[in-house]
Amino acid sequence: MRLTLDLHDVYNRGWEIDRALRTTLEEAERSRASVLEIIPGKGSGQLKKHVLRFLEQPEVRVRYHRIEKDSRNFGRVLVHFRWIRGVAGSAPPARGRRGHDPSPATPAGDHSPASARHSRRRTPASGR
Fold first, then answer.
1. Domain count, the chain
2. Residue 127 domain-assigned?
3. Interatomic CA distance for residues 35 and 41, integer angstroms
4. Does residue 15 lie in a domain region?
5. Which of 105, 108, 64 shows the shortest CA–CA distance to 56?
6. Given its phi and psi angles, is residue 93 left (phi above 0), alpha (psi -120 to 50 degrees) or beta?
7. Contact residues for 111 (Cβ-Cβ < 8 A; gap 6+)
8. How far apart are CA 115 and CA 18, in angstroms?
9. Does the predicted TM-score (pTM) go above 0.85?
């Protein structure tokens, strides 16, 4: 599913632009859209900058997967979503270095050398 937000009507009202962006992001999460197409228009580029600054805010950034600035149409920004495990609005699981789960390998309070040795052991399937 693809949603579209055309900002031509609210180009000079900053608070209304932010409200429209938030509302459309919420709608994309509810409907589990794969792409949100935002059309700030070509113009001077100020509205597009406003949209990109809005999308780069930390509390907004966690809600989508990536941004694509259309190379063939300067007046269009595509926001791509990735839905994890069928849950709308869920962020990908937290991962540490090399894709490993950052949670401790041993139960809390078990700091014996034997348990530490097992947590560092590599399996033959890893190929390393």
1. 1
2. no
3. 18
4. yes
5. 64
6. beta
7. none
8. 52
9. no
Q: At what angle do helices 46-55 and 14-31 cross, to 10 degrees?
A: 50
Running along the chain, 128 residues long, what does each successive block of 10 average in pLDDT?
Answer: 86 84 92 92 87 93 90 89 64 48 50 50 54
What is the rounded CA–CA span in Å between residue 108 and residue 19? 45
- Which DSSP string corresponds to the chain? -EEEEE-GGGTT-HHHHHHHHHHHHHHHHHHT-SEEEEE--STTSHHHHHHHHHHTSHHHHTT-SEEEE-SS-TT-EEEE---BTTBTTPPPPP--GGG---S-SS-TT---HHHHHHHHPPPGGG--
Q: Measure the CA–CA gap between 38 and 11, rounded to whole angstroms.
A: 12
Look at residue 104 and tell me if it is in a domain: no
Residue 86 placed within a domain:
no
Spatial separation of the C-alpha atoms in residues 119 and 47, rounded to whole Å: 51
Structural contact between residues 83 and 63, judged by C-beta atoms closer than 8 angstroms: no
Residue 63 belongs to domain spanning = 2-80
pLDDT at 95: 46
